[in-house]
Amino acid sequence: PKPAAANGRSETGYHWKVGTEPPVLGAHSVAKHEIFERYVRIYIDTLTKSHVQTRLNLTIVDGFCGGGRYRLDGAEVDGSPLRMLHAVEQAQRTLEEARARGFTIAADFVFIDENAEHLAYLRELLIKRGFGDRLDKEIRLVKSTFEEAAPSVIDAIRRKGRAHRSLFFLDQYGWSDVKLATVRKIMGELTNPEIVLTFMVDALANLLCEKNSSISALANIDLNREDARALIAMKDNKGWKRIIQNTLYQHIQGHTG
Question: Which one of 28, 103, 175, 205 has the fewest beta carbons within 10 angstroms of its own beta carbon?
């Protein structure tokens, strides 16, 4: 992605339009997509250990889904939406084969992006890949920012059952697209949510200086002017980027639970 701007956001650098080639996938995104897919597989495996169990209700939310397809080393590869769908399908097949009584993963998918062209590309891709009959049912495409969509997503998970098993993959484009208040809301209103949040620490660390320490985006991550000054002061230390990273890590944990 391009560097974060002064408002804490950065343009994704990835753009999709129906009828055109998908964007080239960056090395950092390759790693993230692999982590997301592996996490889904491990999560389901962990929650289905009991052979008495025959069903798992689950909601998977991709808060910044994009168009779902990329170019990499001369070939086209799947992005996070399709990788998550396939991870659940593989887990379903494995469980069905292993359980005499069968098993059902009742998974809902919510793919959110504020760009209509990205969602149009993803919709066409999902139809081509055989998921068309599930669109607008188990698979929902939502044109919105994650912040605006979050309350309705939380409500839908609450209506699905009491366990609220849910995975939120929030691969934001900078460091302030996701408010820590929203993370607190998810953690507070759902029983069993898990959140994977990416955070461009370097972009924020490079931005911190006296003249812009009061920018409004800092409020999204619960940093006030005094907090910003304390982070700025850390830049006088050797290895200051790692110090700031560790401090922000503790800050996010402390302010979200």
Answer: 28
Q: Report the pLDDT value the prediction gives residue 211, as an integer from 0 to 100.
A: 54
Task: Give the integer Cα–Cα distance in Å for 176 and 40.
Answer: 25
pLDDT along the chain (257 residues), means of 10: 44 84 90 94 95 94 96 94 97 92 95 97 98 97 97 97 96 90 96 93 75 71 86 86 89 91
| Phi-psi sector, 60: left (phi>0), alpha (psi -120 to 50), beta | beta
Are 88 and 39 contacting, i.e. CB atoms less than 8 angstroms apart?
A: no
Tally of helices (H runs) and strands (E runs) in the chain: 9, 7
Q: Single out the residue of 82, 83, 71, 180 nearest to residue 126, CA to CA.
A: 82
- From residue 99, alpha-carbon distances to 42, 57, 89 in Å are 18, 17, 15
Beta partners for residue 254, in sequence order? none
Rg of the chain over Cα atoms, rounded to whole angstroms, equals 20
Which residue in 190, 148, 150 sits closest to 57, CA to CA?
190
Exposure of 157 by Cβ count < 10 A (0-12 exposed, 13-18 middle, 19+ buried)? buried
31-48 burial, b for 16+ CB within 10 Å, e for fewer?
ebbeebbebbbebbeebb
Tokens 């996070």 sit on residue = 80
- 166 has which bridge partners? 59, 193
Dihedral sign computed on CA atoms, order 174, 178, 183, 184: positive
**Distance from the first to the final alpha carbon of the chain:** 28
The secondary structure of residue 21, as a DSSP letter, is P
Closest by Cα among 81, 87, 67 to 24: 67
Q: Which 3 state secondary structure label does DSSP give 173?
A: coil
